[in-house]
Amino acid sequence: MGHNLDIQSIYVLVKMYELRNVKLVADALGKTSSAISKILSKLKLHFEDPLFIQGRHGFEPTTFMDTNLAHLEHILATFDSIQHTEFSPQTLKQEIILYGHALFWDNFGDKLYLALRKDAPLAKISMRQWSLEARSRLVEGENSVLFNTYDETLPQVILQKSICEVSPTFYVRNGHPAQTLEELTDYPFVITRNPGWNDVRYPLLERLAAIGYQVTPTVEVENTLAIENIVRNSDHYSFTMSRLIPENCRGIALPKLSDMRVKCVMSYHRAKQNDPQKEWLYNTCHRVLNQLTE
Predict the structure, then answer these.
(1) CA nearest 10: which of 54, 71, 60?
(2) 20 to 30 A Cα–Cα from 230, which one of 32, 131, 238, 281?
(3) Is residue 107 part of a domain?
(4) 77 with 198, same domain?
(5) Cα separation of 206 and 168, whole Å?
(6) Which residues form the HTH lysR-type domain (predicted)?
(7) Burial of 286 (0-12, 13-18, 19+ CB in 10 A)
């Protein structure tokens, strides 16, 4: 006798013991008599016992049912007592896995970590680079979170919850000759490249191309600190968020179009959408990002 038994089958057994009639059990559980009979037939094979014997006044339970009824009722009582436990980050000891792109970690990683650490001093916080492998793990159900910009290519199984909107801008060194976007396109463009994010396409550049600005990356670099150094020491230009222009650099604004704004989101598996830990992570990140981007 194996143990592959679902809770609904146990409900049927206990109800059958109480009512001794297939139709009454079916009515009580909102099923057809045929469905109840099929469940009972499978249970007879499972327990290798008739379970109930047809008598003059209905079905009578076998000795097996009399002996094990208390165990079955205990299983149901235990199942019914299962409920969500109260969540407290102060007592959280498990690992918190966070993914993000280089631009996100370089600008927000330290502030976000310190805010999370203050709330959850016992937790291990792992802040990792987003990648194709990480994408696969998240889609397959890994209990992790991705901080990124809205990604239309992510499957519906991933929930993308909006945190804030930011305005992207190009930036150059303070002494750069270019003053406008039109002048800037004559100079080399260095851009962040992150596997699983913009290694195939650049949504921002596609939007610019749609309104007549052809911007082609000259060099792709994963490390944003290296990009900032390249920009500060040459006539290259790059892009960042308008409130996060590096030191000794200045911004060159993009066209003021509504779809140029970038939506920052927190992404995680829909199976975890009611997880209180995710709500805490969202609220903390929302507070940190909105303080820095105001």
Answers:
(1) 71
(2) 131
(3) yes
(4) no
(5) 14
(6) 5-62
(7) middle
Shared domain for 191 and 55, answered yes or no, is: no
pTM score of the predicted model: 0.64
Categorize the per-residue pLDDT at 3 as very low, low, confident or very high, splitting at 50, 70 and 90: low
Q: Which domain CATH number covers 244? A: 3.40.190.10
Structure tokens at 76: 């149901």
Residues 234 and 104 in one domain: no
Residues 30, 92 contacting (CB under 8 angstroms): no
- Beta strands 124-129 and 95-100, pairing class: parallel
- Which residues form the domain of 18? 7-81
Amino acid identity at 103: L
Residues 209 and 277 both lie in one domain: no
Q: DSSP E strands: which ranges in the chain? A: 52-55, 58-61, 95-100, 124-129, 144-149, 158-166, 168-173, 190-192, 219-221, 238-241, 249-252, 262-269
Q: Where are the beta strands (DSSP E) in 2-143?
A: 52-55, 58-61, 95-100, 124-129
Number of domains in the chain: 3
* End-of-domain residue from the set 60, 81, 102: 81
Evaluate if residue 56 carries a pLDDT over 80.
no
Distance of alpha carbon 246 from alpha carbon 229, whole angstroms: 10
Q: What is the pLDDT of residues 209-237, one digit of tens each?
A: 888 888 888 988 878 889 999 999 999 99
- Residue 274: both structure tokens together: 């009611």
39 lies in the same domain as 172:
no
C-beta neighbour count of 180 within 10 angstroms: 9
